[in-house]
Amino acid sequence: MQANNLHQAARFVLAILVFLGAPHATRGAKFLKVMDTVGQSWADYNNDGYSDIFGKASYWTNDYANNPDSWAGVPGTPFIEHANALGGLTHTWNTSVGDYNNDGFVDAFGYIAGQLRGNQGGIPVIYQNDGGSGFTDVSSTVVKPANITPASVNRGHHLADFNGDGFLDMYATSWVTTWSTYIGPPDRDVVWMNDGGTSFSHTWSAPSPRNGKGSTHCDFDRDGDQDVYVSNYWYDTNYLLVNEGFNGTTGLNNQPRGAATSGHTQGSTFGDFNNDGDFDIFVANFDHGTNPESRFLLNSGSPNYTFFEDVGKRGIIQVEPFDSGVAADFDNDGDLDIFTTTHAGYGAVPARLYANNGDFDNFQFSHVGNDLGLAGVWTDGNLVSGTSHAAWGDYNNDGFLDLIADGRLWKNPGALNWPDNHYLKIKLEGGQGRWGLVNESAIGAQVRVNVPGLGTVTRQVSGSTGQGMQNDLTVHLGLGTNTDPVDVEIFWPDGNTQIISSVEVDQYLIVDIDGPMDSVGPPALPPPSCDLDVNSVCNVEDLNKLYEDTGYDLVNGVSDRVSLRYDFNSDGIVNNLDIDVWLDLAATANGYDSPYLRGDTAGLSGTSPDARDINLFDYNVMAGFFDPLGQRGPYLWSKGNFDGDGDIDLGDYNALVANFSLAGGYGAASTAVPEPTALLLFGLGCLALLSWMRRER
Fold first, then answer.
1. Cα(162)–Cα(171) distance, integer angstroms
2. Residue 609 buriedness (CB in 10 A; 0-12 / 13-18 / 19+)
3. pLDDT digits (tens, 9 = 90+) for 153-174
4. Which pTM was predicted?
5. Which residues contact 91 (CB under 8 A, 6 or more apart)?
6. CA 399 – CA 506 distance, rounded (Å)
7. Does residue 670 register a pLDDT over 70?
């Protein structure tokens, strides 16, 4: 009887387990502390296939291959610390990594605030990689002196190639000019341009002083150049700098596009949070009473990428000392999760880990840090205070991202919790691309994978984000439970797209831009528009931009990637023929059935071009700048430069004559027009005759 009762009890328990589902023995595994570290960024500095850690004055080389940690007990410390080996970075806010000279080894960067350098202004600090054997401070020889606001309080910086020359440049925010009062006077952000891997020069300061804290970059509109989003403190409005052919001095233009938010923002980050293949923005704001909330801004996407939609917090808990967010797919379920940092100056408010539910445009985040050992003060080893810096990287190559936060390295429980989820890790290596040189670190490159049921999983190689945080340069993509081969699309910073077909999951790949792979050419450019300066009016200012951006070389023609946005007739070169197409587009936009004509110096002026005459007025304007030898200039359209070569010579004269009408309007010349060269010779002859007559007297 007793045995029968036991049998019945066992059957009853089994029935309950079948109904409820037997628990997975390891689903409750937590992140475990590996070691203490002030790391802020990840990269493989010696190219051994294992990611190393950088932070402040030190770096830690990954020795996991020789000293793996063990889950049989407390994790080991598979890193070798090189304490104070980067001593010049001691007083910088954040450390970033990237290959500035394209020698195949990542270098280390920092930015010393002007307030720490007396009256010398802020300046980059650069440690050059010695071929994977150490670093050398080359700042004194590589960084050129600059005249920048001496007492600036600089904060975050990031690396990216802003002018498309294939070399990494630096963007640094400038919070305030001094810190003598609670709210210091605003200052101007700065850009330091890389001159072919040999030197850095300060070439750009923001047009107006702002309270910049964090900065981040992304080619959000996929036009082949890196755009910038800057987080401004207090109630200063954040701004989106759209790259429109930045040449080191001009071309970074503030365009709100719905992203001009505010609210004591310290750091923001780009990421594709709804798996539609386009990069959105997470903005982290303080919780000052009536302060605007933190929010997610969703990218409207192709074809025009015209706006970002504010969709609110989406489950993020707003706290007083919000700092930044750093995004990654920690559980490999295919959607982008986020770790939010906090500012230590506001007490022991812990940072938080949030999981994305993956519901596409309706995505929501849930706080999961408590369950995974990354929040609270109730257990030794968990996050106990604010942490301004955090970054994700897979130090043990198990396919799951580990976390630097709160001055510690935390090991991801990985397959113990999510055994059915898969991944791809891809290290991209730049070089000579189809449309231009790409920086060796491939910073700015984007990777897309379409996964059934998950959408388009999209990641980028980042040169730092938020207020000084840099995920591993190796791209990590969670693929959920998908086990089928996938096609990998790589959108390189030069604008070219490459496809690697049928890639097996759970791999670590190294993809060289020069290597053999399928390629589909550059992304489609937007439809031709005469509104080149994007002010909703087609006038002479647009022609001026065309001339300046192409270097006044439209007679010979130009074909670089930046200029090809002006290839209106799609023949692969920007030249005189494109001027004709622009004149036609502008006339149509302004309500005319026939195009504007060369020779019309005044008809395209102003905000509402309406005068269409080529007569003696235009002739007299051109004659004042005429030079038959072509040695003067450069001149713009309104002076008589109708062929875009900089000078005003016979080519421009002939263009005017062909459309001249003494009676006004447009039409073939009905009256002979004085030939400038003949007129000049006639004048010289008269002067010579007068001189001879005086001598005869």
1. 9
2. buried
3. 777 899 999 999 999 999 999 8
4. 0.75
5. 112, 113, 116
6. 7
7. no
